[in-house]
Amino acid sequence: MTNMLSGNSLIESLEISDDALSEISSILALRRNFSMSVYKDKCMKRRIAIRMRSCRCIDAAAYCNLLRQNEQELDLLKKNLTIHVSQFFRNPSLFEKLQTDVFPYLFREVAQERLMFWSLGCAGGEEAYSLGIILREYFARELQRIPTEIRASDIDADILQVAERAEYNEDRLKDLPDPIRERYFVRNGSRLRLSDKIRNMVTFHQRDIMTAEMFEMCQLALCRNTLIYFTRPDQEKILRGITHILPAGGILVLGKSETLVGDVRGLFTTVCPVERIYRRL
Ligand SMILES: C[S@@+](CC[C@H](N)C(=O)[O-])C[C@H]1O[C@@H](n2cnc3c(N)ncnc32)[C@H](O)[C@@H]1O
């Protein structure tokens, strides 16, 4: 297996030359009628490197070979190149459920001395900050009793910088109720800057979700709209990894179009099928 990555090197180590990029671009144009030309090369290279790493390809030549032979990978790459990042309170009904059912349950029945929440595949941080807003708005008393940490991770260092900056275009806030928007955002030109009160509640980490079993233990794991970019065996691997970092009673939330696959199904009970909320047995 000389063309596979065995270690944990992150995407920065995967070089994609302009020639390789144009080869990948022609494969996608020919086989999927998809044009990469409207996107920035740097951004495309970063996203291709993420797929290369997920497929354990050691260089762009190996990845081009894979693309030529594997229809599923062509679809996954296309999806990955068109990722639409995130939004505050994306799928508002989920955040309502977290506020009314899940957080009270975690504080009441799961927390011992502290709680830890992880947003895995956090993109620009909107999901993790949304958790922070709910905590600050509705759980101030509980927070005094039980220190609660929010961690967020992504493989993409550039996206993590955006997350740490915490300045957003209007469209990212479209599901936010007005009072929340007024309390926690200030306008900075055409963008809206999140208040430090919430920013300081979240720490960001560059981590590969494929190694989730090595993350710190948490009582709530959100892994939304990220699994879909992986093949079924890798989805199973990721879910097995997450299983390792959730104690009994811990909660896992997936995206609306995602579900538990493989052996891990036996390790969770479904709390809310509509919102894809599962409890670790
Ligand atoms: C569509 S965004 C999901 C954002 C957020 N969870 C949500 O639901 O709104 C998917 C994120 O997964 C990240 N990602 C892709 N492969 C990853 C990997 N191997 N490890 C960690 N993050 C990864 C991408 O960089 C991207 O930011």
Topology:
Elements (H helix, E strand, L loop, with lengths): L17 H15 L8 H14 L5 H10 L1 H11 L10 H19 L4 E6 L5 H13 L1 H6 L2 E7 L2 H9 L1 E2 L9 H7 E4 L2 E4 L1 H4 L2 E5 L13 E4 L8 H14 L5 E4 L13 E5 L4 E4 L1
Parallel strand pairs: 1-2, 1-7, 2-6, 7-8
Antiparallel strand pairs: 3-5, 4-5, 8-10, 9-10
The structure holds S-adenosylmethionine.
The site of S-adenosylmethionine has 22 residues, from α2.
Q: What is the CA-CA span between the terminal residues? A: 37 Å
Radius of gyration: 19 Å
Instruction: Report mean pLDDT, rounded to a whole number.
Output: 91
Overall shape: it is globular
Element-by-element helix/strand order = HHHHHEHHEHEHEEHEEHEEE
> What assembly state would you assign to the polypeptide chains in this entry?
single chain
The assigned structural class equals alpha/beta
Q: Can you identify the CATH class of the largest domain? A: Alpha Beta
Q: Tell me the CATH superfamily of the largest domain.
A: Vaccinia Virus protein VP39
**Largest β sheet strand count, sense and barrel closure:** 7 strands, mixed
Number of helices: 11
What is the count of structural domains? Answer: 2
Explain this structure to me?
The chain has 281 residues and is α/β, with parallel strands linked by helices. The protein has two domains: 11-81, Chemotaxis Receptor Methyltransferase Cher, domain 1 (Orthogonal Bundle); 92-280, Vaccinia Virus protein VP39 (Rossmann fold). It is 43% helix and 16% strand. It is built from eleven helices and ten strands. It has helices spanning 18-32, 41-54, 60-69, 71-81, 92-110, 126-138, 140-145, 157-165, 178-184, 196-199, 232-245; strands spanning 115-120, 148-154, 167-168, 185-188, 191-194, 202-206, 220-223, 251-254, 268-272, 277-280. The strands form two sheets. It has a seven-stranded mixed sheet. A three-stranded antiparallel sheet has the order 3-5-4. The longest helix has 19 residues, at 92-110. The protein is globular. The structure holds S-adenosylmethionine (SAM). S-adenosylmethionine binds at residues 50, 54, 83, 85-86, 90, 121-123, 127, 154-156, 159, 208-210, 224-226, 229, 255. The site of S-adenosylmethionine has 22 residues, from helix 2.
